[in-house]
Prior knowledge:
This protein is α/β, with parallel strands linked by helices. It has 15 helices and 24 strands. Strands 14-15-16-13-12-18-19 form a 7-stranded mixed β-sheet, sandwiched between helices. Helix 14 links the parallel strand 18 (408-412) and strand 19. It is globular.
Amino acid sequence: MINFSFTDGFAHVIDGRKVTSPTTKGVVDPATEDVFAHVPVATPEQLEDAVVAAERAFPAWRNKPWEDRQQVLNDVAALLERHATEFIALLMREVGKDQMSAAFELSIAVPWLRAVAKQKLEDEVVQQDENRVIKNRFRPYGVVAGITPFNFPIVLTITKMAQALLTGNCIIIKAPPTSPCSVLKFIELSQAVVPAGVLSVLYGGNDLGQWIVRHPRIMRISMTGSSGAGKAVMREAADELKSLTLELGGNDPAIVFGDVDPKEMAQRIMLGATHNAGQTCFNMKRIYIRDTVYDAVRDELVALAQTVKVGSPFDPSVSIGPVQNRGQYERLSGLISDCKEKGYKIAFESRVPASGKGYYVPLVIVDNPPDESRIVREEQFGPIIPLMKWSDDDDVVRRANDSEFGLGSSIWGHDIDRMQRMADRLDNGMVWINEWGVVGGDFPLGGTKHTGLGVENSKHGLASWTYIQSFVCNRKF
């Protein structure tokens, strides 16, 4: 068992050991804009060291019985569960998550690992008789990489590392550029049960991402991030013809029917739109409300918003913390300014802390902006909620589908047959009826259009970490 502490600094992990670098970078607390930690910035040589260590570890790891690799994931889950309190505090500090959002991330991370640990890919037997055996076998790529984002650093690391390891690969994780600490500590913790070289982590900026994507011996990459970043990865990976999974942007519609209870629906919208300060890829981002109930739902949402406090994650009364980084803050501030400059009606705008420090964005409800507005067309990724009216099923489906993204969507009401017919016409990778955000290790996470390529999780995500080998054995030679 390694000695593990949250107070002994942050480092890369290469070949089972903590490693520093000549250059470090400060990690900013989004609630105060103060630097609270320093992390090493990886060099090209350190990436090569991680690749060599993974190549050395791969044969033994690939040849372990499937059940042994499943047990390793369960052991990692147990370690993470044991240190959940420390990780919650770290997520609050570096991501700016309110306490409920940080606890939620840990509450799904542990069962997520355990769900993946139950999965298995069996050989597909095509023919088996006295003359010949033909099978389709799922074979690991070897050295692979995961590029993780700032908003759910632990869970979105797990979506990559768990299935990669289970299928026999050795993975190098690139920690998020603005919230790396929890990922560095999580991979460090995992070394207690994962063989050296099988699971490594490096911190760096865009240059590290380019080195990973261009590296000729990293065979596969899973990346979660913006659509722009995903397109850049795809271009860079073309020369090496790498296998890719890209889980990118979303601008998820929620369609509300006229038979809902306005008060209950307002509570659902508030949670679905503002969870993690709105920084969730499948949050409700465009709310289409039937015109017969629009005013009632809007008014209930405004009344609820008046009880929501934006402020420090460490204040127990706060339910929306700061957004994670300055780039997010400036982009969201620009969207709010655009709404006001265009004369859109602001139904509600909350106060933010008066200190002048911290990336605090007010909770804003925009009342029926036009479909062509930026707040409707763009993925806001923050606590700004546009509400729009609808009156015709065909028209609202057209409007919901009128997006470059296709991640998730939700439909709310009591006419299940009618909602199911509508769901069949939505161009999204995930559709929920009277639910929102139901995800896990056994559910595919992904979408269509600019939302990306492939899926994470489920048997489909598991298979993506392998290539298919046709195996033929002639018994009568």
